[in-house]
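Data availability (excerpt). The following record was deposited with the supplementary files.
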Amino acid sequence: MKPLLSARTIAKLEIFTTPDKWKPILLANLPADQFPCSIGGSQKNQRISFGMALGETTMDMDGSEYVDIDIAAGKTLKLEYGITHPGTTIKWRFKTNDYDIGFFIKCEQEEVLPSQLYDAQVEEHTGSLTCAKTGEYFLIFDNSYSKIRGKRVSYNIEIMEPS
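Predicted structure:
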């Protein structure tokens, strides 16, 4: 990134890679009640949509926001969420333009939603999981079984903390 930015711009940047680095900065600049517990705040029952960092964002006919991303043949897309409260609900919706896609959820190394192929080109797949414990949860779109066809997946993920 350095070759693309001037020295003046680089001097203004701070990059934090771990929560012990960014949480104190966040709390020093924003009231804790303005953001959810999952990122160090104190706000409960906030619906948080994730996925903005990957792909393109599109709006569906019903007003739902989706992230669109291409998954190459033989590859997977792994989305990671840090769950800090037992009872937090992860909700998902996804569809593909063509062909089926595999989907499963892991918590740490344990598969908490078994791997299954979904005909998401025919009908949007929706579901939810109430997290029994805290930890790193991975939502995985699996196209590893496909040797030829890449898939375009449109997804929406919401994290809902317990009240």
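Summary of structural features: The longest strand covers residues 151-160.
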